[in-house]
# Entry
Amino acid sequence: MTEIFPDIPGCDIDGLIAEGGMAVVYSAMQQTLDRRVAVKVMKAGDDHNTQRFLQEARYLATLNHRHIVTIYDVGTLQDGRRYLTMELLPGGDLRSRLKQGLDRAQIRTWILQLADALRVVHQQGMVHRDIKPANILFRADGSLVLSDFGIAKNPHMDVELTQAGSMVGSPAYSSPEQVSARPVDARSDQYSLGIVLLEMLLGYNPYRADEYATTLVNQLQMSVPVMPPHLVAWQRVLDRLLAKEPDQRFADMSALMQALPPEEGGQAMYATPQSSQDDPTLMYTRPIAAVRHVKSRYTLWLRSAVAIVLAAALGFYAYRIYRIHDDLQRAQQRFQAGLYIEPAGDSALYYYRRVLSRDDHNSQALAGIYALKQVFVQKVSRAETNHDWPRALASLRQAQRVSPRDPALIAMQAMLKQEQARYEHEHQLGQEGATHDSGHAKAHHGSSWNRFMHNLFGR
# Structure
C-alpha cells in the first residue's frame, strides 16, 4: 500500500523518518532552494500540543549555533495542522551510536559541543528539559546537533504550557526537580547532560529501571556511580553534574566546559584548596586551633568546654544525619519492593514521613512522597481506561493516604465519579443506534480523561 504523504508547500516529501507522540518527521526536497530538508508535521490534537509545536518554532528561530538544529520555515497545512521545515540530519542519533561503543576523546568532544550549545540556549533564558540520546542527532559529516525543543521552556514565560505539579521530560534522563515536579532552571539540563555523559562512559544508564516508579526514585536517591580506574578522571565532573541539589552543580555550562578533564595525557583542570580556609571539611576544627597557643588556665578550660559542647553538638548532628540517611535508604528499598504504604510501620511512606518529622524540608523525602502518589495515580488511570471503577476508587484512596487533602486528587475523585456516571448511563442504552453513540461518547470521554490527567499530572 502506497503511503499518502501530506502536501507541504514548496516541498516534495519522499519518505518517513520518525514518528512520535506529537509529530511525524518526513524527508523531502525543498524545490525553491533545491536542498534536502526534514519536515516535522504536527499530528491532529488539542490546543496544548499546538502551543508546544509553535513554541519549538519560536525558540529555534532565536538560536544560531552550529550544534543546534536549524529551522527554515513554519506553516499551516490545509487541514489546520502545523509543520516545521528544518535541516535534514541523516547521521542517526546518539542512541544508536552508543551501541557501537565510544572512545574517550570522542566523548569529550561531544560533551564540549553539547555544553556549548546549551550555553547558548541558557543565555536566551531557556531550559531544554529533554536532553537524551534520542534528541542528539548527527549530520552526514559526523558533527553533532541538539534537537527537539518541543518541551523547552522559559522559566519566566510560558507558564501556561506546564501546569503546576506536572512532570515533563524523559524520566530516565530527568533531574530530581523534574521528576518531583518542582520548578526547574538551566541547572536541570546539567543533570540530564550528566546522565548522557555517564551513559557514554559506561555504555548504559544506571538510573533507568524496569519500572517507571523505580526510575523516579533512582533519580531522587541513587548515588553517583563510582567510576572504574580508567574513567576516574571523569568522577568529579559527574559528581557535580549529578548532584541531587541544583546548588551543588556547576554555575553554568561555561564552568562545566572548563572543568572537563583534558585529552588523554594532559593534566586535570581541577582547582584544589589553597589553604585550610578553602577546605570546608576543616570548618569545625578552626575554633580550637585558634586558641592552641594560649597558655592561661582559663583559656585552656574554655577551650576544653568549647570542645565538649562542640563535640556533643556534632555528635547529635551526625546522629540526626545518620538517621535521615538510614530512613531514606529504607524508604528506597521498600519502594523498590512494592511496599508503598503497607505494612503501616515498615513501608516507603512510613520512612519518608519519619524523615520529614526530623527535617520537614528534606527534598528527597518530599520527592519520594510525590513519586508514591504518582504510582497510585497511574493505577487509577489504568483502571479508568478499563472501566474498572472499584479498582480505580481503591487506588485513588491509596493516593489520598499518601497525600491527604491534595487538591489534584480531590479534583480527580470528582472527575472519576463523573466518568463512571457517564459510562454507566451509556452502557444502559440497549438500542443499536444508542450503542453506536455510546462508543463515540466513550471515546470522547476517554479523550476528556486524558486531557484532565495531562493537565493535573503531566501524564
User: Anything to note?
Assistant: DSSP finds 15 helices and seven strands in the chain. Residues 11-87 form a domain with the Phosphorylase Kinase; domain 1 fold (CATH 3.30.200.20). The first helix runs from residue 47 to 62.
